[in-house]
Amino acid sequence: MPSADGADSAGGSAETGDGATGDGATGDGASGSDAFDLGDPERLLRDAGSFTVTWSYSGVDASGAEIEVTREFYADLEAERSYTRTTSATDGQADGGNIEQFVDGGVTYVRFGTGDDAFVSSQEGSSEVLGTAIALSQARAYGADDDLVSAGTETFDGVTVDRYELSATDEALIRAGSVSAQGEPGNFEVTNFEYAVLVDENGLSRHESWQFSGRADDQEVSGAWEFSLTGVGSTTVEEPDWVDQAGA
């Protein structure tokens, strides 16, 4: 099974929320002159050779349903191997969105479902896991907002990172990244929004989190989203035990 040496699937040592900082934080309210600047993630991660991305979302949508989605990406580019897993649930019940994918040297193995109901298939060719994993980061979208301000430095996954925070944004950005805010724009009102991103010295977004609450018509809606990039240069991917079931 995949592993990211020294990485925590919950997002390393960083903490998010009002005024929270991870290990080694230098305090809140750092220099506002530190400009938010991102590097080229595709080039940086290809140079690193391996990485782990975890992404999660939970929220209450306009119908009152509680939705949870988690995606995990483990990539060893040098070994031409990757493993991804997606799980989803509605109101605490798995909704059929459990998918695992393993790529090894140009062959893709996919497992749908869980337990005895799982189905495994294989085919030649592979998807671009690097581009898919990078796309889960929204730092570039929020980076276009001049209100992102520096909030000090801290430690995440063993490296020093700069923290940037945003407390207000366009509702369209929230809707673009959320399944909770359904309905016409005029029916959706944001009452609270918080966003934080951690950037390492190379300009890689290593951790992002946002949360919002609001109303859609008469329904209270909310969402919490988290992205973590860990195990940069130290992730390995092993063959899952279900691969042998392909074509059986």
Give keywords:
mainly beta, twelve-stranded antiparallel beta sheet, 4 helices, 10% helix
Q: Could you please describe the fold and organization of this structure?
A:
The protein has 248 residues and is mostly beta strands. It is 10% helix and 44% strand. The protein is built from four helices and 14 strands. The chain has helices at residues 41-48, 129-135, 139-143, 171-176, and strands spanning 3-4, 50-60, 66-76, 81-90, 93-94, 99-104, 107-112, 119-124, 149-156, 159-166, 188-200, 205-216, 219-230, 235-236. Strands 2, 3, 4, 5, 6, 7, 8, 9, 10, 11, 12 and 13 form a twelve-stranded antiparallel β-sheet that branches. A hairpin with a 2-residue loop joins strand 9 and strand 10 (159-166). The longest helix has 8 residues, at 41-48. It is flat, with a radius of gyration of 19 Å. The model is unreliable at 4-33 (pLDDT under 50).
